[in-house]
Amino acid sequence: MCGRFTLATEFEKWNEHFDDLQLKMEFSPRYNITPTQDVAVIANTSEVGEGHQVELYHWGLIPSWAKDPKIGSRMINARSETLTEKPSFRSAYKRRRCLILADGYYEWQTIPGEKSKQPIYVRLKSQNPFAFAGLWEEWKANYMEKPLRSCTIITCSPNSFLDQYHHRMPVILPEDVYAQWLATGEKSAETLQPLLKPYPDDQIEAYPVSRFVNRPANDSPECIQRVSEMDTDNQKVEQSLF
Q1: pTM to 2 decimal places
Q2: I want to staple 5 with a disulfide (CB 3.0 to 4.6 A). Which of 17, 70, 105, 241 is the partner?
Q3: Per-residue pLDDT at 115
Q4: In this structure, is the dihedral angle defined by the CA atoms of residues 85, 90, 93 and 94, taken in order, positive or negative?
Q5: Whole-number Å distance between alpha carbons of 227 and 212
Q6: Domain coordinates in residue numbering, the chain
Q7: Residues of 66-89 as b/e, b for ≥16 C-beta within 10 angstroms?
Q8: What is the tens place of the pLDDT at every residue in 63-84?
Q9: CATH code linked to domain 5-239
Q10: Eight-class DSSP state of 176
Q11: Strand order of the sheet with strand 118-124?
Q12: Residues 166-207: tens digit of each pLDDT
C-alpha cells in the first residue's frame, strides 16, 4: 500500500518532464503527506494546448455517487488487479486518470521481537521526483459551489527488492508512459493494465528513518533522515515521545 509520501523537490525539476507545466497551486516542501490531505496532481482534464496543470486534489477517492464524503478516507489506494471490478474505481479507470507527484514514500517493516514497526523511506536511486498512477473523481453536495476533486493511488504487487518490506507497492509510472496514462477519452483495460506493474527493483533504494515520521503532525526534513542500526535500536525511547 501507500499511506504516506513526500514531495519536497522544487517544481522546476518537473520542467524536465513536461515542457508545458502550469502550477495552479502554492508549493511548499512536504515530508509527511498523509491521507485526506491535499496532494499535487496532474489530471487528464486539459484540452489540447492548455498544458499540464498541477492542482491540489483531496487524497482519498470520493465517488460522484457517494452520500458521505468520509468514504474517501477508506479509498486512499486502489488495487490494480480489481480496478475493472470495483464500482468505486471502474468508471474513473476508464476516463479519469492522473499522475500524483512525489519523490519518495514510506513503508513500515515488521521487526521480529519488536512491537513497533520500523519506518522505511523508499525513493529512486537517482533521487529524481516521480509520479504515482492515480485515479480522480468529482463529488458535489447541494450546498457546495464547486465540486471537490479527489484521488487515489493505484498499487500493485511489489518488485523483488520491496517485497521484504510490504506485499504491495504503489505503481510508479516511468516517464515514457505519462502521455498514455493521461490520454483523454475512454480507454480499455487492455490498453491500460500493462502500465500497472512494479517499478524496476534496480532503480529503487530504501533505508530506515526515525519513528519521528509516525506522527502525522511532523512534517520536516527530519522525517527522511537516515538512521543507523544503533539509532534504530534506540528508537523505543524516541517512540514514547510521540
Answers
A1: 0.92
A2: 105
A3: 87
A4: positive
A5: 11
A6: 5-239
A7: beebebbeebbbbbbeebeeeebb
A8: 999 999 999 999 999 999 999 9
A9: 3.90.1680.10
A10: G
A11: 30-33, 5-7, 104-109, 118-124, 204-208
A12: 999 999 999 999 999 999 889 999 999 999 999 999 999 999
SS3 209: strand
Phi, psi of 38, deg, nearest 5 = -85, 140
- The maximal CA–CA distance of the chain, rounded, in angstroms, is 57
Can you tell me the distance from the alpha carbon of 236 to that of 242, in angstroms, rounded to the nearest whole number? 11
Q: Which amino acid is at 63?
A: P
What is residue 236's three-state secondary structure?
A: helix
Distances (CA, A) of 208 to 7, 71, 226, 229: 18, 32, 6, 8
Measured CA to CA, the distance from residue 153 to residue 134 in angstroms comes to 5
Reading the block at residue 230, the C-alpha cell is 544503533
d(CA 208, CA 229): 8
Q: Which residues are catalytic?
A: 2, 107
Q: For residues 30 and 103, give the distance between their C-alpha atoms in angstroms, rounded to a whole number.
A: 10
Q: Are the CB atoms for 23 and 102 separated by under 8 Å?
A: no
Q: Which amino acid is at 76?
A: I
Of the candidates 83, 33, 23, the one whose C-alpha atom is nearest the C-alpha of residue 58 is 33
Backbone dihedral angles phi then psi of residue 154, each to the nearest 5 degrees: -80, 140
Report d(CA 5, CA 219) in Å as an integer. 11
Quote the DSSP letter at residue 202. G
Task: Round to whole Å and give the CA distance between 76 and 205.
Answer: 24
Q: Among the residues of the chain, which ranges form H helices? A: 87-95, 178-182, 189-192, 229-233, 235-239
The position carrying cell 475493472 is 84
